[in-house]
Structure formats: structure tokens, C-alpha cells
Amino acid sequence: VQLQASGGGLVQAGGSLRLSCAASGRSFISYAMGWFRQAPGKERELVAATSWRGDITYHADSVKGRATISRDNAKNMVYLQMNSLKPEDTAVYYCAAGSVASRPAVTSQYKYWGQGTQVTVSS
């Protein structure tokens, strides 16, 4: 599966962004999908993830209540809606696909990665 992330940008604190990830290739529904981020000097972290049907989701404590992951299997798309953005949300955001379709929070499963999209939140 090939992944293309988009939707990043520069936004003021308190603003919103919706990140999109387009998947190509077959069997999109076979994959759990996740959004990761990596800030300068920090390790990559799982921000949100969804099972293949979208019925099981995970959101990191750092974004819980402010971010929502969703997927549209008919369009091979995954989204991350982020609200009330904070400067500490600044990072490169990556979408990823994992093979354990029903356990999206298992980070070791993610083997396919998009190119990343930069999110910068100004204070």
C-alpha cells in the first residue's frame, strides 16, 4: 500500500486542521491505519489509530478530546481532525498502515509509511 499525507500547514494556537491520507493499492480494508508525529529532537509517537472498520480507535492522551481519527474505506482515505491546536502539536505528521487490522494501537505493526506533512502551530 502506498500512502500520501496532506493537509498540514501553519496555524495559530487554538486553530484547527484536518490531515488527510490517501492510500493506493489493494486491500485498504486489510490495514489498521495510524497517524504518528515526530517533533524535532523527539521520538516518533502514535497520535491516533483506527481499526479496519473504524470501530476501534486510539487517541494519545496528548490529543484526546482535541483530535479525531476517521476513515472512509470506500475512498481509501484516513483523516485526522485536530482542534484546539497547541504549539506542542508542532511536528511532522505521518500516516501509516499496519497489518493487525483490529488492533490499531499496536505500534510495531506499522510497516507502510507516507511521506509526512508538516504541522506548525504558532503561539
Helix content: under 10%
Uncertain residue ranges: none
Q: Major β-sheet, in short?
A: 7 strands, mixed
Tell me which oligomeric state these chains represent: single chain
Beta-strand residue fraction:
over 45%
What is the chain-wise order of helices and strands?
EEEEEEEEEEE
Tally the helices.
Answer: 0
Structural class: mainly beta
Short description:
Helix content is 0%, strand content 51%.
Task: Fill in the keyword field for this structure.
123 residues; globular; 7-stranded mixed beta sheet; 4-stranded antiparallel beta sheet; mainly beta; single chain
Q: Could you please describe the fold and organization of this structure?
A:
- Strands 2, 4, 5, 6, 9, 10 and 11 form a seven-stranded mixed beta sheet that branches. A four-stranded antiparallel beta sheet has the order 1-3-8-7, with no helix packed on it.
- The protein is built from no helices and eleven strands.
- The model has no long low-confidence stretch (mean pLDDT 96).
- Strand 7 and strand 8 form a beta hairpin.
- With 123 residues, the protein is mostly beta strands.
- It is globular.
- Helices cover 0% and strands 51% of the residues.
Layout: helices, strands, pairs:
Elements: E1 2-6, E2 9-12, E3 17-24, E4 32-38, E5 45-50, E6 57-59, E7 67-72, E8 77-82, E9 91-98, E10 110-113, E11 117-122
Parallel strand pairs: 2-11
Antiparallel strand pairs: 1-3, 3-8, 4-5, 4-9, 5-6, 7-8, 9-10, 9-11
